Amino acid sequence: MRLANRFAGGLALVVLALAPARAGAQVPPPRPNIVYILADDLGYGEVGAYGQTLIRTPAIDRLAAEGMRFTQHYSGSPVCAPSRATLLTGFHTGHGYVRDNYELGGWRDEEERGQLPLIPGTVTLGRMLQRVGYATAVIGKWGLGGPQSAGAPTRQGFDYFFGYLDQKQAHNYYPTHLWRNEERVPLRNPYFSPHQRLTGDPNDPAAYASFTAVDYAVDLMGDDALRWVRAHAEGPFFLYLAFPVPHVALQVPDEALAEYEGQFAETPYVGDHSYLPHRTPRAAYAAMITRMDWHIGRLMALLDSLGLDEQTLVMFSSDNGPTYVGGVDTEFFRSTGGLRGLKGSVFEGGIRVPFIARWPGRIAPKSESAHVSAFWDVVPTVGALLGLELPDDLDGRSFLPTLLGQPGQVEHASLYWEYHGLWKGAQAVRMGRWKGVRLGAHEDANAPIALFDLVQDPFEEQDVAAAHPDVVRRIAAVMASRTVSGIAAWNFPAPPRP
């Protein structure tokens, strides 16, 4: 079975032999360190390098100034867990194992079980690099298997893990604990539910005191990333730094909040659209992103001080578009850069994300690419970089030629997404200039496909399906090419035979 083969642990990953260097030929560089930084629910337009003017992101903007900025890069899904699964496995959600968030357990500490775990032996990016001598680590939010499950990071190709195993726990930035490998690390924070409404005066700062504590998870993660890099400076290493920012709840240390307090007109958020209240929600949201950026700046400074800049490929992106709940004002911040839709949507605003790659001496500074790419391209890109032999049925295509400014870039014939949590089942296909979107697929496998010309209509405002029936048929064929999921809720009804 093709699906079973995709997740078997026995797939070999072989380093291709390098031919002896000819006289005068450039000697291949040593294997680079790789740092992949992933934000959570960060919109396409929420960093300065992509047009943001109200939120300060100097470190991320520096990455773009010293590297390459992609303008048509896509996340793996409009929500957390499946997006991360596509990144780590190289398969899109029409072929992958994790196709939506699948929650296990409950919200309280004693109910913590995480999400649907990856299958044992899954060929992840971590395992791929581990097998060729890389030290591998995940620091941040995982979401692909809870405590003692087969999906725990240390059972999926990572030597080290520190952070949230259960993404439900990540709804609170002051948790009672985090996890180091498979051991619980107690923090100096009391338990409180991450979904409460304000009961006091919305304008009284004291009314919000119970929604903060001592140990801010993002700061602990930032510090731990520096410690781990120092310990593995001899390399090669792979650090997957998955910050939970700016996923709500709105929580940030007072000294970070002070950078933005008073800068925006504010209406207190009292928790009426889920997640925790905050007296100055706009300032809190901006401060959370800037706090993450500060930690990224610290990491870049460390790489420089260790002399690792030219030996390290750094990538930055976000797992999906910005949220629609929790007090976040996406219209005020123009969080999607004008793109249609938010998190949970297969329109551009839900899945088009910032992507920046920096590697001094290898990636041209201040460069930009409109190459159409997605999360599932990262595995084959790293494979091509290291000369690895990968499974031939990956959905991803290497974008290494684009990064290095070399010829031979292979373009995708199409990109595919499916999402089951909203819209009564949604599918989307990007095919060149065309974008097809089908909503309501759980009720009708032949629900109409809306068609958009992203060159003429980047904001997906005009459905031109009636004028291009041939394109719609091709997009429908891509949608029909998905494989059947073992989770019944992640399948669509079979269309009637003609």
> How many angstroms separate the termini?
27 Å
Helix content: 10-25%
CATH superfamily of the largest domain: Alkaline Phosphatase, subunit A
Q: Outline the biggest β-sheet.
A: 10 strands, mixed
Q: What is the number of E strands?
A: 20
Counting helices, strands and paired strands, the structural category is alpha/beta
Overall mean pLDDT score? 93
Gross geometry: globular
Sequence of strands across the biggest β-sheet: 10-9-8-7-11-2-12-13-3-14
Beta-strand fraction estimate: 15-25%
**CATH structural fold name of the largest domain:** Alkaline Phosphatase, subunit A
Number of helices in the DSSP assignment: 12
Note down, in words, how this protein is organized.
There is one protein chain. The chain has 498 residues and is of the alpha/beta class. Helix 5 packs parallel to helix 7. The strands form five sheets. The protein has a ten-stranded mixed sheet with strand order 10-9-8-7-11-2-12-13-3-14. Residues 1-29 have low confidence and may be disordered. The protein contains twelve helices and 20 strands. The chain is globular, with a radius of gyration of 22 Å. The chain has helices at residues 2-6, 58-65, 80-89, 125-130, 217-231, 254-257, 281-305, 330-333, 348-351, 378-386, 400-404, 469-480, and strands spanning 14-15, 33-40, 68-70, 73-74, 103-105, 112-115, 135-141, 160-164, 177-180, 183-186, 237-246, 312-318, 355-358, 367-369, 373-374, 388-389, 415-419, 426-431, 434-439, 449-453.
